[in-house]
Amino acid sequence: MIGFIRGELAEKGNGYVIVDVGGVGYQIYVPANSRVYLSEEGREVMVYTAMIVKEDDVSLYGFMRKGELDAFRKLITVNGVGAKAAMSILSSFSLEQIQQAIAFEDVKTITKANGIGKKTAERIVLELKDKFGASVGAETLPEGDAGSVAIPSDGRSEAVSALIALGYTRGEAMSALASVEDADLTAEEYIKLALRNLF
């Protein structure tokens, strides 16, 4: 198992990069929104990797954050979700958005990823909710960037904090928001809809 690869970024392609390690070029599939694309060719990079071995293929999948690698490994444990589907989800959303969508049982948002249907999204939520739920509300900063990068706030997470401040438990707040199917609302809009479910 290859845990990570550190070397010179030799090439950036559509959905992959090639990292030169001592004269050997490792082709690594990466999410479309990976921060590795911000690095210049010729610069040293370190990519956390997962190696998927099949009868006729050995592939490396790479991530700039350990949390993304962990999410990838969890996603591929879901029945019907292979490496390609997991990469589609990780390419469509940030790690924080994935954590919140699963914890809030937001199936509609997950289906926005290319190739992910409603049934697959429902299985992801069902099988991973307990594994991702504890991460909601926690700010996960990129490796090595602690204190220098601000994670954009999300309407749902702000609404959870506001409802807790009003005296509701985190469980009650999350349960009320889970039934709100609308996406991309403001915190105030989420709070109003959640309060209807709490009365």
Structure in words:
This protein is an alpha+beta fold. It is built from 8 helices and 5 strands. The chain has a 5-stranded mixed barrel. Helix 1 (66-75) crosses helix 2 and helix 6 (155-165) crosses helix 8 (187-198). The radius of gyration is 19 Å and the shape is elongated. Mean pLDDT is 82; it is low at 134-153.
Main sheet?
Answer: 5 strands, mixed, barrel
Classify the helix fraction into a percent range: 40-55%
What Rg is obtained from the alpha carbons, in whole angstroms? 19 Å
Number of helices: 8
Oligomer: single chain
Distance from first to last alpha carbon: 52 Å
Element string (H = helix, E = strand): EEEEEHHHHHHHH
- Uncertain residue ranges: 134-153
Write the layout of secondary structure elements.
Blueprint: E1 4-13, E2 16-21, E3 24-29, E4 44-54, E5 57-63, H1 66-75, H2 83-92, H3 95-103, H4 107-110, H5 118-133, H6 155-165, H7 170-178, H8 187-198
Parallel strand pairs: 3-5
Antiparallel strand pairs: 1-2, 1-4, 2-3, 4-5
Helix pairs in contact: 1-2, 3-5, 6-7, 6-8, 7-8
What's the gist of this structure?
The chain is an alpha+beta fold and 199 residues long. Helix content is 41%, strand content 20%.
List keywords for this structure.
single chain, 199 residues, alpha+beta, 5-stranded mixed β-barrel, 8 helices, 41% helix
